[in-house]
Design goal:
Layout (H helix, E strand, L loop, with lengths): L1 E3 L1 H4 L7 E9 L2 E10 L4 E3 L4 E2 L12 E6 L5 E6 L21 E4 L3
Antiparallel strand pairs: 1-2, 2-3, 3-4, 5-8, 6-7, 7-8
InterPro entries: Kelch-typ_b-propeller (IPR015915)
């Protein structure tokens, strides 16, 4: 997950928001992207993903960091993690190491 402060979140999110990327839900590694509005603590529509179908692979144990891009805008860079292995106990750790990364835009 990554915190987006109010000065970057815009007027729709006066207290900022937290972006949650992937993780584990009910013992299954997921590829979902959610936004938690810190003003209302309600889930909001998600941001756009740059990169294509490959970036939507389920992942856990990855990193998501808010960074300034080369063009001066901001985005969240998601890198690494794993696919999870249900045979490895709960929560499902291990599996295939993911060596890719992608940007989340629309901040």
């Amino acid at each position: 997950s990554a915190y987006v402060p109010p000065r970057l979140a815009g007027p729709q999110f006066p207290a900022g928001y937290v972006v949650v990327v992937g993780g584990i839900i009910e013992g299954t590694t997921v590829s979902s992207i959610g936004i938690l509005d810190l003003s209302t603590f309600a889930w909001a529509p998600s941001v756009a993903v740059a990169g294509g179908a490959e970036v939507q692979r389920p992942r856990n144990s990855h990193s998501a960091t808010l960074l300034r891009r080369a063009d001066g805008g901001y985005g969240i860079l998601v890198v690494g993690g794993g696919t999870g292995d249900v045979n490895n106990g709960n929560p499902p750790r291990g599996g295939e190491d993911l060596r890719d990364g992608f940007w989340l835009f629309g901040l």
